[in-house]
Design brief:
This protein has 76 residues and is mostly helical. It is 50% helix and 0% strand. The model has no long low-confidence stretch (mean pLDDT 78).
C-alpha cells in the first residue's frame, strides 16, 4: 500500500494559478453574505427597539389629510 500523498513536501494546491483567484472570490462572496446577515440582524434589533418605545409596525401607507379638497368640475 502506497501513501505518498500524506508525506508530500510541496503543496500543489496552493501553486495552482487560479487558486488565489478562487480564494479571493470565496472570501468576497462570504463577506457580502456576512454583510447581508448583519444588515438583517440590525433591522431586527432596530424594530424591537422601536416596538419597545411604543411604535407599532406600520402596515398601511400614509396619506395626507391636510390638503383634501373637493374635486374640481371638469371643463367641457
Amino acid at each position: 500500500m502506497k501513501v505518498p500523498l500524506l508525506f508530500r513536501r510541496d503543496r500543489t494546491v496552493l501553486k495552482r494559478p487560479d487558486a488565489q483567484d478562487q480564494l479571493e472570490k470565496v472570501l468576497a462572496d462570504s463577506l457580502r453574505t456576512l454583510g447581508h446577515v448583519c444588515a438583517k440582524v440590525a433591522d431586527l434589533i432596530e424594530a424591537q427597539r422601536l416596538e419597545r418605545q411604543g411604535y407599532a409596525q406600520q402596515q398601511d401607507t400614509l396619506r395626507r389629510v391636510d390638503q383634501e379638497k373637493a374635486p374640481t368640475p371638469k371643463k367641457e
